[in-house]
Sequence to fold (220 residues):
Amino acid sequence: MTADSEIRLDFDRARRVGVGEAIMCAGKSPEQLAAVLDAAAARSARFLFTRLEPEAHAALPPEHRAALDYDPVSRTAFFGAAPAGARTGAVAVVSAGTSDARAAREAERTLLFNGVAPTMIFDVGVAGIWRLMERVEEIAAHPVVIAAAGMDAALPTVLGGLVPGLLIALPTSTGYGMARNGETALAAVLASCAPGIVAVNIDNGYGAAVAALRAVRPGG
Fold:
């Protein structure tokens, strides 16, 4: 069995749901990823690659590495030309701490791949709440806010009482001991007393971004 026989790609996803095809690279071999890239090139398709670890990227053939716009922080890669005229002002991605940057950057890159340029605001967690208050009016001006936070994930709850737009909580696996690799953060946002917060799974920056895209796309 060859690598290409194990793959069935969705070339029509953008037309159906308004979000381009994404390939989760975790668990895929270099041969399978190369087969995906060959198929995408044959159709002149644009693909987003997520959870592409630096070691997996380095294992790809040189011609495939050269064709990718790769970001090791978010572990994402773009294949194909970026969309023209990215929309701005619709989504803010707010990170509680610098340690939450990986999930926040995954959300950012997913949005950029789909033609939305988010406002990125880092290190405004509640441990130094004055930093958040300095930016809160800027954050509140966005129709959609993604709030990435680990540990006790207090940031989404605080923002839930301060901003009027759709608030998507992105719990991260940042934290010690009882943070339980993000389980405490996820439970905290699900149990939040601020009404109307929605949540995605732990470290799922891609899912948070797609939820935001569904909200801001025409007709959303």
About this structure: The longest strand covers residues 87-95. The chain has two domains: 3-79, 87-216. Residues 3-79 form one domain. The two ends are 42 Å apart (CA to CA).
